[in-house]
């Protein structure tokens, strides 16, 4: 009876491969949630493991299905990364761009050396690069490049299967290695206490070290005070002493709200409502007076909105240097998918999104129009125009059809590279026209996650039967190569960043995690630091590597093919 049931399940999955894809997604994301210390494989790697196991049932997934998933992913990758990729191509960020150059050059050199010595096929070489560099997108661009080789269909399927198998083995090794060395071993080599160094950097940038438990409180708050020490002072003079981090938003006298003006003199017994950064309000309270217990009569709502920074003159300026109107407070800076700390000395980049609390309505005006010299306010909610994805995929497919021959070796961006490039340009353009309908963040995240996981599931299912053969062929060689290819470029970056660039340890380690596009490594570093300062290095290198590394897929396939005997 059990054999009949297993046979029925096998036949069903073989007949309906789409069912097998989503079964691999379900099991894979469950596997990816398992955490061992700082190590968590994540949904994509978990999906690949599940797909390889299910693939032992000889399930064939149509190439077109895999391509659809991949094109959705690579478009979303380019579209979401475009604004930060182009914003970081400037002289100010060229320092950290060196880390991405190190990653690409060293990893390519190591993979090609291993290919020449061990006579690796192009599929295994590309999979090793993707896994050791922990960049899943390379799997897609490499398999697409292999499909264009002048080889029999059976050989193309074998090489594509080797990409996936080599990736799965070296990814796990590369992931574990980069997490451990960046968060534990490198701090020992630098002879630093990461938490102490991160606290020093936090304070130097204008942050405050708060007592345990305060982290759950909002960063921007309102507090009311009885006017005592500030008696006789004008609103303008008190505001100057409070600095930009606090704003006077209401004054109540004898139970009535008084119209605010710069020359309004405060009287003893007035109630005053301040809005600002929590730590700054606590420090400045003595300038005003005793805190009011009952604030119900002074309660007011803060307007909240997002502004994208578009004016080049404010790029690479500190947050405190921005000409923000009175009553506005930046509570966070979103750069790509990361939220940076909104500290006075945090440097903003073009296309950063400033998350703003606005108390200026108390002054009878709104600050949003006054921020037009910085950038544009983002609409609260814009529906996604998925036609943009269709245009990008069509143009990218056409662009990827062109081939350039260098030294007798044909190179092509392929469908993946072409769609990535078009997505980058469209994402950059939309950041400039942020008030127009584009593809919003939530839709991009869904396309990216579902596209990559669906593609990985498809290729994993098709590659299942030959996975064991490749593992038996190379044994421990691939895992050891995965570790070496993860450690060597990271170590070179550590040496250059510490000795030459003189970077702070949290920023340096964050940049190394970013050059390898390793979010798990970033999380481990941030846990060791106790704050988000590693993001200051991570976001720049991640934005560049996340675009450049996928383009290495076609390149490594072309170079590895040229090294094949005969």
Automatic annotation (TrEMBL):
GO BP: potassium ion transport
Chief localisation class: membrane
GO MF annotations in UniProt: monoatomic cation transmembrane transporter activity
Entry GO terms, CC: plasma membrane
Subcellular compartments: Cell membrane
Cited PROSITE patterns: RCK_C (PS51202)
SUPFAM superfamilies in the record: TrkA C-terminal domain-like
Membrane-spanning ranges: 12-32, 39-59, 65-86, 98-120, 169-190, 386-405, 411-431, 443-462, 474-496
Assigned keywords, A-Z: Cell membrane, Membrane, Repeat, Transmembrane, Transmembrane helix, Transport
Protein name: Aspartate:alanine antiporter
Organism annotation: Pantoea rodasii
């Amino acid at each position: 009876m059990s054999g009949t049931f297993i046979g029925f399940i096998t036949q069903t999955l073989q007949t309906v491969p789409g069912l097998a894809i989503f079964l691999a997604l379900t099991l894979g994301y469950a596997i990816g949630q398992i955490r061992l210390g700082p190590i968590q494989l994540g949904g994509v790697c978990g999906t690949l493991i599940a797909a390889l196991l299910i693939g032992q049932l000889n399930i064939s997934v149509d190439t077109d299905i895999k391509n659809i998933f991949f094109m959705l992913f690579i478009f979303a990758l380019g579209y979401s990364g475009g604004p930060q990729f182009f914003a970081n191509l400037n002289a100010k960020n060229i320092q950290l761009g060196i880390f991405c150059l190190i990653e690409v050059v060293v990893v390519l050199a190591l993979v090609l050396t291993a290919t020449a010595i061990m006579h690796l096929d192009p599929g295994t070489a590309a999979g090793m690069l993707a896994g050791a560099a922990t960049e899943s997108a390379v799997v897609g661009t490499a398999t697409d490049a292999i499909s264009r080789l002048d080889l029999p269909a059976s050989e193309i399927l074998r090489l594509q299967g080797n990409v996936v198998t080599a990736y799965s083995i070296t990814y796990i090794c590369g992931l574990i290695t980069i997490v451990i060395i960046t968060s534990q071993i490198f701090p020992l080599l630098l002879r630093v206490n990461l938490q102490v160094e991160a606290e020093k950097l936090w304070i130097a940038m204008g942050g405050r070290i708060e007592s345990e438990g305060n982290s759950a409180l909002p960063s921007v708050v309102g507090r009311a005070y009885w006017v005592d020490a500030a008696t006789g002072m004008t609103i303008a003079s008190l505001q100057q002493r409070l600095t930009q981090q606090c704003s006077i938003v209401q004054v109540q006298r004898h139970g009535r709200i008084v119209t605010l003006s710069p020359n309004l003199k405060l009287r003893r017994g007035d109630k005053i409502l301040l809005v600002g950064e929590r730590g700054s309000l606590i420090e400045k309270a003595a300038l005003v007076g005793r805190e009011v217990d009952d604030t119900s009569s002074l309660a007011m709502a803060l307007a909240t909105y997002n502004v994208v920074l578009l004016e080049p003159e404010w790029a690479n300026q500190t947050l405190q240097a921005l000409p923000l109107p009175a009553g506005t407070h930046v509570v966070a800076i979103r750069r790509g998918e990361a939220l940076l700390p909104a500290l006075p000395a945090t440097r903003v980049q073009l296309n950063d999104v400033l998350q703003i609390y606005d108390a200026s309505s108390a002054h009878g005006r709104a600050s949003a129009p006054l921020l037009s010299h910085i950038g544009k306010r983002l609409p609260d909610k814009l529906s996604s125009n998925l036609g943009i994805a269709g245009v990008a995929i069509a143009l990218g497919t056409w662009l990827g059809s062109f081939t350039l021959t260098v030294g007798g070796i044909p190179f092509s961006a392929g469908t993946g590279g072409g769609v990535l490039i078009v997505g980058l340009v469209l994402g950059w353009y939309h950041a400039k026209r942020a008030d127009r309908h584009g593809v919003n963040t939530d839709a991009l995240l869904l396309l990216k996650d579902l596209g990559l996981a669906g593609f990985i599931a498809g290729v994993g299912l098709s590659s299942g039967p030959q996975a064991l053969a490749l593992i038996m062929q190379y044994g421990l060689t691939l895992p050891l190569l995965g570790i070496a290819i993860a450690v060597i470029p990271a170590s070179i970056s550590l040496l250059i960043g510490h000795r030459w660039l003189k970077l702070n340890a949290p920023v340096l380690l964050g940049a190394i995690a970013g050059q390898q596009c390793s979010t798990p490594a970033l999380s481990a570093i941030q846990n060791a630091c106790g704050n988000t300062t590693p993001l200051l290095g991570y976001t720049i290198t991640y934005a560049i590597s996340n675009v450049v590394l996928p383009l290495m897929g076609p390149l490594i396939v072309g170079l590895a093919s040229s090294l094949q005997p005969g």
